[in-house]
Amino acid sequence: MKWDDSFAIGIEAIDNQHKKIFEHLLAIESSVAKRDPWHILHFFVTQLAESLKLHLEVEEALLEIVRYPERVEHRESHVRLLQQIDELEDQLRNKASGESLVGFFEIWFVRHVLNGDREYAAYIREKFPALLDRSLAPAGL
Ligand SMILES: [Fe+2]
Ligand SMILES: [Fe+2]
Prior knowledge:
Layout (H helix, E strand, L loop, with lengths): L11 H22 L4 H28 L5 H23 L4 H30 L14
This protein binds fe (ii) ion (FE2) (2 copies).
The site of one fe (ii) ion has 5 residues, from α2 and α4.
């Protein structure tokens, strides 16, 4: 799967983070395809986990600030995403069918962005349009 601009939710800083996470996923995918040893794969998985954790924290803080009504449910869906990263790491370490697992995580992640994240973006666009012009995180995240 490739990142597609139609996945954008319209909040630039968040979209950049989503894209970055996707790049990490693609790096894992090609590492698995090349049958890289675990220490190399582990490096990519760690990068993915770090940028995902940071992203989810930024998102949760944002939803708190704008008092998004579904913020508790949204946070719960993030917990599931983090659990899946742990599962992915375990299974890659044990050399289970890595390629399909990474693909599965990609689909799950994109689905979260297109459903959950897009819903809060619509809320922010309606209630706090000025926020859409601001950078929410340092560049390069
Ligand atoms: Fe997100
Ligand atoms: Fe989210």
